[in-house]
Amino acid sequence: MRELRAVCVYCGSSSGTDAGYAALAADLGRRLAREGITLVYGGSAVGLMRELADAALDEGGRVVGVTPRSVFRTEVAHRGLSELFEVDSMHDRKLLMFELADAFVALPGGIGTLEELTEVASWAQLGLHDKPVVTLDVDGFWRPFHDFLDAIVAVGLLKPRNRALVGHVDDPARVLDVLRARPSDEREQVIGLDET
Predict the structure, then answer these.
(1) CA-to-CA distance for 30 and 174, rounded, in angstroms?
(2) Per the CB 3.0–4.6 Å rule, which of 45, 104, 118, 175 could disulfide with 78?
(3) Would you tell me the crossing angle of helices 47-58 and 19-34 to the nearest 10 degrees?
(4) Whole-angstrom Cα distance, residue 79 to residue 55?
(5) Cα–Cα distance measured from residue 38 to residue 61, given in angstroms and rounded to the nearest whole number
(6) What is the spatial distance between Cα 185 and Cα 132, in angstroms, rounded to a whole number?
(7) How many Å separate Cα 28 from the centre of its chain?
(8) pLDDT above 90 as % of the chain
């Protein structure tokens, strides 16, 4: 059983058209706070990111935001967090979020969320970490993404063991148990060039 002290959550800086997205974000924020798990996220005060952070804060949770100074024009930094790191670039943001977290959850989001999810999964494939990575679904949001991963396996461009690095949870009540139960990656840390 893994110890979870901090969980990084990727999600949209917009709210989307489905009220279920905001409800899911708030639900996860509350669950993390009630379990005494620090929420690490992108530091924004808008969209699903705000729903997530505010719900955790309202439950007395610790919320750490990481935001690059360069995006202050498009994302408003949340000034009510337990801690807010201001970094120089998006790369620095993602790296610090990675370093602060024991696991990763992707909620609904756009291209940025997808990019964060696939990058941290790619790092796992390369053997750079063995922290669990899961998508948390509502109304089948992540199903096309997982279908796409399965299609890549089917055409031989992704090995099944690497496909398994991105888990899928559709019940928010189970997400923390799934993260704690995901096995450590016992593969060798150096991956051959033929790995996909």
Answers:
(1) 14
(2) 45
(3) 30
(4) 15
(5) 7
(6) 9
(7) 11
(8) 86
Instruction: Please check whether residue 196 is in contact with residue 157, taking contact to mean a CB–CB distance below 8 angstroms.
Output: yes
The torsion angles phi and psi of 157, rounded to 5 degrees, stand at -100, 0
- For residue 32, the one-letter residue type is L
Within 10 A of 69 (CB to CB), how many other CB atoms are there?
12
pLDDT tens, position by position, 3-45: 999 999 999 999 999 999 999 999 999 999 999 999 999 999 9
Three-state DSSP string of 144-196: HHHHHHHHHHHCCCCCHHHHCCEEEECCHHHHHHHHHHCCCCCCCCCCCCCCC
Contact 68, 36 (CB under 8 A): no
Helix 111-125 with 90-100: angle, nearest 10 deg: 60
Q: pTM, whole model, 2 decimals?
A: 0.91
> One-letter amino acid identity for 135?
T
CB 86 within 8 A of CB 77: yes
* Helices and strands, number each (H, E), in the chain: 7, 7
